[in-house]
Known about the structure:
It is an enzyme of class 6 (ligase). It catalyses: (6S)-5,6,7,8-tetrahydrofolate + formate + ATP = (6R)-10-formyltetrahydrofolate + ADP + phosphate. Pathway: One-carbon metabolism; tetrahydrofolate interconversion. Helices cover 36% and strands 19% of the residues. It is of the alpha/beta class. α4 (73-86) packs across α18 (419-430), α7 (131-151) crosses α8 and α9 (214-223) packs across α11 (243-250).
Amino acid sequence: MSYKSDIEIAREANKKPIQEIGEKLGIHSDHLLPYGHDKAKISQDFINSVQGNENGKLILVTAINPTPAGEGKTTTTVGLGDGLNRIGKKAAICIREASLGPCFGMKGGAAGGGYAQVVPMEEMNLHFTGDFHAITTAHNLLSAMIDNHIYWGNELGIDERRVVWRRVLDMNDRALRDIVTSLGGVSNGFPRQTGFDITVASEVMAILCLATDLADLERRLGNIIVAYTRKREPITCRDIKADGAMTVLLKDAMQPNLVQTLENNPAFVHGGPFANIAHGCNSVMATTTALKLADYVVTEAGFGADLGAEKFMNIKCRKAGLAPSAVVVVATVRAMKMNGGVAKADLGDENVDAVKKGCPNLGRHIENVKSFGVPVVVAINHFVTDTDAEVQAVKDYVAEQGSEAILCQHWAKGSEGTEELATRVAQIADADQANFAPLYADSMPLLQKIDTIAKRIYRADEVLADQKIRNQLKEWEDAGYGDLPVCMAKTQYSFTTDPNRRGAPVGHSVPIREVRLSAGAGFVVVICGEIMTMPGLPSKPAAEMIKLNADGDIEGLF
Length: 558
């Protein structure tokens, strides 16, 4: 049996004018800044006007560690939001914007799938409203101003060897990871070694997603540490005098974007930090605004719960004063079989034993999320090859963990396929059973925070950090940054730093390769193992299949 592709389904959507979507949340058209007919930004004046409203219930959607079999976290986020509206609840969803890197690389877009999608799918997965371009430009303006300051006399005494601000590009390009700039003679400046990160790893991206208004944005941008002097004194963006111009470039990008699901329900799509190299959550502005307008807000955190959910709890909720009422962990029978040792080519064959063998990965995530004091429901994202026996094996396992698993068919049926999940999630959220608390206190030393995550979330035996890294962390503590949370940059495919170790491994170590202080965003990035902050393209990138057809429509996006 053949099925329509995501882009075919999205193209057939019966979209409503964005003004009608805004009216569902009480946003008058005067407060929407349209980008065409089907997407708009929400004005800061309107956001300010609803701050006195009571907050709705916040529901987080996370997942098991991703596998090539697919999990469908964003698809489930959209399906649950549609399901809540279907059962009569006033609900909105909040997801991240798509990076061009994975769109043209391997992972694909970030708009959901099947009949649980956000539209316009093509625009969302490409240039959208230009937010990522604004972030890239603001980031690189600072880079240009740093080198320009050095060229024109270096009044601040920057040590060219200690410029820590790299450039960014919203594309997977391994050739730019380590480069030398300013070659070609005196007129081109002082040569130095540097590199590029992908835009979603930019501290500017993190700042935009954590800032509460334009004044907070400018303050955070000013706090960015870009370099050090020969006496190792920090030089900030404010010292370079770039914070004002960067804020101007980001003025419109700070305003949340409003679009719609296939079922014409409101969706906030704003910000896009990756969870394997950044904090993996959509913007605080979008989430807090949605909470003032809807009774239930469904949001997601990137990759598995060991990354996205951990950072959602320890960074976003801590910084924004948020507390989730319930968490949905997405799993698939196919992924359980792959965690149980089944090859991708054999996932269509029934194998209940492999499902049972792979379930401990799911169990680990359930246990971890519960450790934050929040009730957990498992959504089994249904694939047509799943058998009743395999689904029941997952349900039985989850019941043994003290939670419940609900079969969801939103990919094929839209909101009809998530009625049961929506009903149960609403019941849990309304019961106010959550007793949320972050995993560690602000006052805990930085290395101990890293150790806490490694041991309690990853189940590692130890953290491997050489003396240089330990000294750097201590220096930051002495400088007043010890109360910051830590943002772990680690492979998304495993609880370990080895992407090939699936399941729920124990007895491993977490090696730290590098630490970076994001003083503007307000966290310390801890780079573990071989994780790259500038990904590369696969041997057959998705870009090879993306084209315009004879009618001028885009083909190949997924």
